Amino acid sequence: MANVAVQPPPKRPKIESGLVSERYLRIERVDNFADVIAPKIVFVGAAQSFCPIGGVKIILQQVAMLRSAGFNAYMISTSGFPVWLDDDFVRGNARVIIDHAVPIRPNDAVVLPEGTLDRVLNQAKHWPWTKVLSAMNIVGLRNHPNRKTNWDDVGFNAKLALSEFLHTATRDEFGWNDVTVVPPTVSENVFYPSSGPKDNTVVDSGRKNPPAHKALRVLFDADKDTFDGFTWIYLENRSEYFVADHLRRTTMAVCIGGVEEFGLPPLEAMASGAIPCGYPGAHGPDEFVSSDNGIWSKTDEPEDIFAAMKKAAQMRPKSQRHKKLLAARQSTAARYRSAVAAEKLVEFWSEHAPRTRNL
User: Fold this and answer.
1) What's the sign of the alpha-carbon dihedral 70, 71, 72, 76?
2) What is the pLDDT of residues 141-198, one digit of tens each?
């Protein structure tokens, strides 16, 4: 057994504000924890994941599901296990290797993200082990000054994508017909509805479109007829528990999306019983957004999003429209529970790296 530093999830502190910056961040080195000699799957994660990043969450969900199914899987990241991630299933099963010097052997598999640069890709051309490309962003797949290597020259054994949009986009732009779609998971341990009363709150995360977020706050503050007595809660850089708790209790979850390869926030709002409204984003959300499961605007213009917010605020909780929205939201979220993704992951890795599984 080689000595490799691995970080189990740090103890979760109780913080009322939910601000990630208040969580105690440290890296604990635990030797002899990772079985790096046995065949393994190594996902290369973001170099820095101190703030909530959807891609890092998705990787750790996949690592946790694979490990619970008997695969020897890890994410490698110098920033350690994210303090903002609260899903008990992920924290209990996922493992993060925080050393770069991890021995990779022929029976191993390495999963590279679309942000991998030329230096690594040129080395990867000669790797004897299984190489898998994980595509989460179509823009990142395109050539840019720091990466000019042709993906096809690397010799990937397989490719993963997180949405039908990416599956179609990679086929159209790169001619790839061998991409397997494994959708993200809405954590059922974190995002679930409550039968309790709703608060007069509006929650949102406007990171993708700060100008629209700012304009919406102005419109919100000015409309006393509709939103008098409402409180606006900003969810950016908050812990998962904080986000989920407010989604369960809020009147509405405002979506201010951009160009999305998938778009988890609207789904997490649906799973939590909130009314998602506004603009879910372009492209990715098309596979799960419908007129039945939210009050959507057709554009990301603040006036259009605000009109959707007003409709959500004026909806009567016991109306037929509200009941139909709730049923559609729960039905949509159910398609993205962990069992769906786990089945596809097990099938994929049983084919491409069977020796990494201990049955």
Assistant:
1) negative
2) 998 887 889 999 999 999 999 999 999 999 999 999 999 999 999 999 999 999 888 9
Distance of alpha carbon 41 from alpha carbon 67, whole angstroms: 10
Predicted TM-score (pTM) of this structure = 0.89
Neighbouring C-beta atoms of residue 24, cutoff 10 Å? 10
- Read off the tokens for 188: 């059922």
Q: How would DSSP label each residue in 130-178?
A: EEEEEES-HHHHS-BTTB---HHHH--SEEEESSHHHHHHHHHHH----
Instruction: Report pLDDT digits (tens) over 56-90.
Output: 999 999 999 999 999 999 998 877 788 888 999 99
- Whose tokens are 């991890």? That residue is 102
Task: Find, among 331, 314, 210, 179, the residue nearest to 267 by Cα.
Answer: 331
- Distance of alpha carbon 53 from alpha carbon 47, whole angstroms: 11
